[in-house]
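Hi R.,

Here's the chain you asked about this morning:
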Amino acid sequence: MAASRRPSFPVKTGSSWQIRSRLSSLSEKLALHLAFVAGELPRPLFRLFPPSGEPSRFPNCDNDLSLDDVVAKYRHAAPPAVDDDFFPVARVYFGTAMMVALAGGNFSSDGSTTWAHPVADSAVGLNIPPLDEDLPIWRNYIGKLRALRNAEIPGVMLGLPDLIGPLDIAAGLLGPEQLCLDAMFEPEAVSSVLSECLRLWKEVFDVQVRELGLAEGGMVTVFGNFMPGRASLWSEDFSALIGPETYRKFGLALDGELAAYLDSSIIHIHSSAGRCLPAIKDIEKLSVVEISNDPNGPPLSTILGWAAEIQAAGKSVMLSNWEHPLSDGDVDEILGKLDHRRLLVTLQCSSEAPAEAYRRKFLQLEKTN
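And here is the predicted structure, written out as tokens:
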């Protein structure tokens, strides 16, 4: 299948964003997100995750919900305990395993998460079919996406699903250990499989554009970022298992082609994949690099060194912290060492009190920058 051309999209800059310090309207938050991509923020963006109050009666994953329940899940979602720079998003979530299932893998779910199960013991002879819009999992997904779209929930943006990258799709089909072995002993077969995974990714994304359109001139990623034009986030978790030479050989060109296919883009990696960042930061069309701070990963000082290099390469940085609490001193170190114009920080908080304190800290930065 021939790759379609990436359409152009004019990215506004400067004062046209009409940014204000208060967090009130959806349009102001969208403007902040666009300024983040352009590297023109008046202060860093922030996202807060204090413990939730009443648990939702709906599961995290939507694959087993009825159409009515998917709409109700987002129509009646509780507002955040502490306001931040993000906004309500409704997206049909089948987890990371959906892309593997569309590539021919096996899919299972317990409602909280989904799993991909390998279907091949070698990349040799493994073929990735074109997107089959009659697959039950795809019909399930599209039906629910259209139900959300037609519901037109006030104040809620529609978002993309978890579109994992070519390396992660291949790892789901083969298992990560087998993909590592095949990268050493069957490199031509691995390159062929990855090329087909890239083609499938584009096919799936093109349908998202067809179904969602460009609301307010952009798209909302699975992590809730609003980005201009045809935009998406993709993950390359598999990069945590390989070195920079292997990434350059198998992943760099694929991720570069994905970035060039989009108007704006985010790649998600884990901090344990930091050795691959010197290559990733040089992807010409890539807009943002998101680094997830792993509990057993490198120290914060090392991550901040990588982040500064990414920013120096003209890209914005999203630092996310999960199950790895940061002290107030850690947050101050982040804010002291990185360019605020190109920075988004996600913070997991133990309660509403520290979340509110962080909210005040970030808003105050606009007055001092």
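One quick note: DSSP finds 13 helices and twelve strands in the chain.

Cheers,
M.
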